[in-house]
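Sample intake sheet
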Amino acid sequence: MIEAVIFDLDGVLTDTAVYHYQSWKAVAAKFNYDLTEHDNEKLKGVSRADSLKLILQWASVTLPQEEIPQLLQEKNNHYLLLINELGQKDILPGVLDFLTLLESKNCAKAVGSSSKNAPFILEKLGLAPRFAAVIDGNGVKNTKPDPEVFLNAAQKLGVNPERCLVVEDAPSGIQAAKAAGMNVVGIGYDLEQADLCVPSLVGLGWDQIQNL
């Protein structure tokens, strides 16, 4: 019996991936590296610091450690500027209906995201009051695919991990959920480890998630 659902943020509740891409592309351009959309796919679900490490590797650039925090802050400032106009219009299809369904079943809800901006984004979307817990990149030592974010969310909800369902769109997040002992609904395709893959949350039913 599923007693709680833990949602990733980007690509599940809203899609800020294009803003992440534009922000990282600006950082990569500083090193004469043209960050492609294919590159960006490899950054999904990856922490900000680890994303920068990958970009520097791709650009064959080595930087003094003391320059890293400034670059990370520049990326985040650019991203925050781009998402400042987020609103309810940016909630992905099916999300509001699925949240309402879970509430009708008294199912606990949390967000488990690598994003350090998760609380800000949830406020902009008007979704913050609908989640009992938000675990983000500020509250974990180990980012996905480590299961810490989801285990922390389950603990905060007071629900055993095996009774939690995760909704994810990134392979690293799905790996984290499985490592936590949780079933996973994958948003998208070619997510091999997910227990169920759907194109969106539109029409996802209570019986479907209980029968995983």
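Comment: The domain at 4-15+88-210 is CATH 3.40.50.1000 (Rossmann fold). The first strand starts at residue 4 and ends at 7.
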